[in-house]
Amino acid sequence: MRKPEQELAEIKSMMERSTRFLSLSGLAGILAGVYALLAAGLAYFWIYYPGAPFGDQITGIKEQTLNKLVIMALLVLCLAVGTAWFLSRRKSEQKAQQFWTPAGRRFVLALFIPVVAGAAFCLALTVQGQFALVAPATLIFYGLGLLNASHFTMSDIRYLGFGQLIPGLFAAFFPHYGLLLWAFGFGFLHIIYGTLMYLKYDR
Amino acid sequence: MYDKAFENIIRLRIMSVLMVNERYDFNSFKTLLGVTDGNLASHLRHLENAAYIFIEKSFAGRKPQTNYAATEAGKIAFRSHLGYLEKLVKENKL
């Protein structure tokens, strides 16, 4: 017979591994943050340059600038998701774990239902001409998605969720600071979170 | 009490997974546990014969999928096994 401590640890580890998606890469978080900061920098040049990176210019964006912003946002989203997919896959291979588990499917669904709904909502905001509310809406829906998904991966991710949700709500009341808060949430916090996760789980 | 059905580590792992997942499919078990088809099937059959788990056959698109789930009796047996282990740990610490 095995030692009871060992046996309990075995049970706990199996329960964890079978219900949570543990292959999520920290490095992917860092890179997503870097993409977001670059995108926020470009958006600053298109909207505010050479002024300060906040103010009401965001409420009256020209159609040409708007098109550029939408295309860039979609590119950044695809790049971030693609990077996360690729690096998480590599991490699961390195750790000899199955990548596409039932837990992984639940994680992706939990995250992307709010995110896809948020993307559709942002499209509606754009059609209605409410440009200033797009940045807060992306933060809020992404934050809710992360909180939802935190049940199916490392639970630390819920701090990142609150980190997006709170600046998002703040930005909804103060839309002139939307771009700065967006850069803080999607850029800075992703880099911090990714670094912490990398140090804690990936090495 | 100590349950002989869980003496084997693979069966203990299978049951742990089924305690927290409503159902779990054969291929996911295989990769999660890193065992061969034959080995896994024999342990699953053992648990099935003890009436601790049951099989659900379904289709995922066109592919047949074999899912497994814990029975009430299986859950009760696992909890009592868990309780026994925890009691042992506690007694060892005294």
Explain what this protein looks like in three dimensions:
The complex is a heterodimer of chains A (203) and B (94). By secondary structure, chain A is an all-alpha fold. In chain A, 76% of the residues lie in helices and 0% in strands. In chain A, helix 2 (26-47) packs antiparallel against helix 7 (178-202) and helix 4 (102-127) runs antiparallel to helix 5. The two termini of chain A are 33 Å apart. The model of chain A has no long low-confidence stretch (mean pLDDT 91). Chain B has 94 residues and is an alpha+beta fold. Chain B is built from 4 helices and 3 strands, in the order H-E-H-H-E-E-H. Chain B has a 3-stranded antiparallel β-sheet with strand order 1-3-2. Chain B is elongated, with a radius of gyration of 15 Å. Chains A and B meet through helix 1 of A and helix 1, strand 1, helix 2 and helix 4 of B.
Please sum up the structure shown.
The complex is a heterodimer of chains A (203) and B (94). Chain A contains seven helices and no strands. By secondary structure, chain A is mainly α.
Number of helices of chain A: 7
Largest sheet of chain B: 3 strands, antiparallel
For the termini of chain B, the CA-CA separation is 20 Å
Biggest interface pair, counts? A-B, 18 and 22 residues
Low-confidence stretches of chain A: none
Oligomer: heterodimer
Number of strands of chain A: 0
The share of residues in helices of chain A is: over 70%
Q: Bin the strand percentage of chain A.
A: under 5%
Calculate the mean pLDDT score of chain B and round it: 90
Biggest sheet features of chain A: none
Mean pLDDT of chain A: 91
In terms of topology, how is this protein built?
The complex is a heterodimer of chains A (203) and B (94).
Chain A lengths: L3 H16 L6 H22 L15 H32 L7 H26 L6 H16 L7 H17 L4 H25 L1
Helix pairs in contact in A: 2-3, 2-7, 4-5, 5-6, 5-7, 6-7
Chain B lengths: L8 H12 L3 E2 H8 L3 H13 L3 E8 L2 E8 L1 H22 L1
Antiparallel strand pairs in B: 1-3, 2-3
